[in-house]
Amino acid sequence: MTALLSLKEIRKSFGGLAALSGISFDVRPGEIVGVIGPNGAGKTTLFNVITSVFPPTSGEVVLDGAPIGGLPPHRITKLGITRTFQNIRLFSTMTVEENVLVGRHCRSRAGVWTGVLRTAGQRREEREIRSKAGELLELVGLSGADPDSTAGSLPYGHQRRLEIARALAAEPRLLLLDEPVAGMNEAETQEVFRLIKRVQSLGVTILLIEHDMSLVMKACDRLVVFNFGRKIAEGTPEEVRNDPQVIEAYLGAAEGGADA
Amino acid sequence: MEWLNPYHLQVASFVLINVILGVSIYITLSTGQLSLGNAGFMSIGAYTAALLSTQHHVPIPVGILAGSLLAGAAGILVGIPSLRLTGVYLAIATLGFGEVLRAVLINWESLTGGAVGVAAIPQMGRVILAWAGDRGFSPETLGLQGNQFIALAVFLILLLSTILSVAFFLRLSRSRVGRAYTAIRLDESAAAAAGIPITYYKVLAFSQGALLSGFAGALFAHATSFVSPGDFTYHRAVEILVFAVFGGSEHIFGPVFGAAFLTVMPEALRFVSDYRYILYGILLVLMMIFRPQGVIDPPLMRAIRRKRKGRTA
């Protein structure tokens, strides 16, 4: 099967610091791929490169056979890659629903004049946006929220799920989740796990950064392991779990161990 | 009709012009851009309309339209390089733009009349009275004196202009474009990740604000029949900003309220003469302490809406 997303020799340096050195791997349609590694390994930097927050120093990001490097972030979103953020970035004083409506921006068209004149087409589109937002809020389990409550007033776990709803509103083919269960308890983690699986069943491919190993092992079809900006392993959760380099990166080298 | 006092109508007219200016800064602020250039854009609209009607005898509505569009175009030109600036840096750059423009108005005497300004601009009310008079109309048939009729005509034109401007941007703020503006103000990176073209909307909002300032300026020129560089100083730029800061900049009714209140208050306090601006200052300081987001904010508007809904239900 051809890759949905293909990363080719991605390098990213900040000044003299190499945050990513030569990262290559593929994400196939329908997969959940986990990106794991110690803090500072370059996982979020990779997400920022894929979504064009900044360009890679060298290397290529290829979506469905077409290079997408250098496009502005909103174009990447329109092409079908959306994301959530490690430190939640909701529009906190907007209502819960409005956050999802904003996520629908690139799948709707109304401009200044149609918006002001409220043409028949604009009203139809607005109804479509709202019904889609309603579906997504239901999907992530937030349909019961007070429509006037602001995103910032939601409990932490709900904010994470609202961010997922906003990202899904753009109808992504590939969803990037940056630590979706960080700071959550066991029950909340379970809910997000089920949500991720449901999103996958809707045909969305997922690239997942996560530190919660039980979730990663359960949810992911394949894992990519980073350490110090390099890919040190790739494979099924089972393969990765037994990889000596991975064990070393997480637990440190055994005393007097090999220099591998 | 004794109660129809031309002085009160004139104050009301200035309220309306200031409301339009307040809305103009609200639009740029709604994308998180702090502009102090709106007095400059206002001067573009005012001088364009004034010079077209005095020197080229262009009909007033055409001059007002030309002045607004030219200000809007200037907004695009200033807005694009300003994209690299945010916060106070943008404020300083746009303030500089306004002051440079004012220096041009003072020094380009052959066109602008220099520091003296442009006088004898056709005044909307007088033009309407003359036009109606030619057709055998006398304000007395309405029980009005000439100057009452003039002031009333100006007020009504400004009222219509203001209602249209506020309605336009109120609807815009509730549409897809308005949501994009708010999203950009709250978090630019998250907005871009949500698929919003930041550059396009920031320049659009900046230019819309400039256009509306120019519109207010053009109306001002034809309401007062005299403009000079002194009308568009730094003081004016800050005054416009204060409308939004005092009234609230997160809902369109904030600057509408701010402009109305802050224009009427000094007039209502005339009996304390020079002390009125001290009171004005005290009021602003108290606002910053007790309600820094301004008098009107979205939670307040939502509460009002809910209450109204509750009453009708």
Descriptive account of the structure:
Chain A is of the alpha/beta class and 260 residues long. Chain A has two domains: 1-82 and 186-260, P-loop containing nucleotide triphosphate hydrolases (Rossmann fold, 3-Layer(aba) Sandwich); 93-171, no CATH class. Chain A is built from ten helices and ten strands. Chain A has helices spanning 43-50, 73-79, 96-103, 112-117, 120-139, 156-168, 186-201, 213-219, 237-241, 244-251, and strands at 5-14, 17-27, 32-36, 58-63, 66-67, 81-83, 174-178, 205-209, 222-227, 230-235. Chain A has a six-stranded mixed sheet with strand order 6-7-8-3-9-10, with helices on both faces. In chain A, strand 7, helix 7 and strand 8 (205-209) form a beta-alpha-beta unit. Chain A is globular, with a radius of gyration of 19 Å. The two termini of chain A are 33 Å apart. In chain A, 43% of the residues are buried. With 313 residues, chain B is mostly helical. Chain B has one domain (6-312): Orthogonal Bundle (ABC transporter involved in vitamin B12 uptake, BtuC), CATH 1.10.3470. Chain B is 74% helix and 0% strand. Chain B has helices at residues 6-29, 38-55, 60-82, 87-107, 109-112, 124-134, 146-173, 176-186, 188-193, 198-224, 234-247, 253-268, 276-290, 298-312. In chain B, helix 6 (124-134) crosses helix 7. Chain B is globular, with a radius of gyration of 20 Å. At the A-B interface, helix 2, helix 3, helix 4 and helix 5 of A face helix 7, helix 8, helix 9, helix 10 and helix 14 of B.
- Cα distance, first to last residue of chain B? 41 Å
Give me the CATH architecture of chain B, please.
Orthogonal Bundle
Q: Tell me the distance between the termini of chain A.
A: 33 Å
User: Can you tell me the residue ranges of chain B where pLDDT is under 50 for at least 5 consecutive residues?
Assistant: none
What's the rounded overall pLDDT mean of chain A? 92
Subunit arrangement of the protein: heterodimer
Determine and state the CATH class of the largest domain in chain A. Alpha Beta
Number of separate domains of chain A: 2
Task: Let me know the largest β-sheet of chain B.
Answer: none
User: What structural class is derived from the secondary structure elements of chain A?
Assistant: alpha/beta
- The largest sheet of chain A has its strands arranged as 6-7-8-3-9-10
How many H/I helical runs of chain A?
Answer: 10
- Largest sheet of chain A, described in full? 6 strands, mixed
Count of the domains of chain B: 1
**What proportion of the residues of chain A form beta strands (DSSP E)?**
15-25%
Structural class of the secondary structure composition of chain B?
mainly alpha
In the CATH hierarchy, the architecture of the largest domain in chain A is: 3-Layer(aba) Sandwich
Beta strand % of chain B: under 5%
- Average pLDDT reading of chain B: 92
Let me know the CATH homologous superfamily of the largest domain in chain A. Answer: P-loop containing nucleotide triphosphate hydrolases
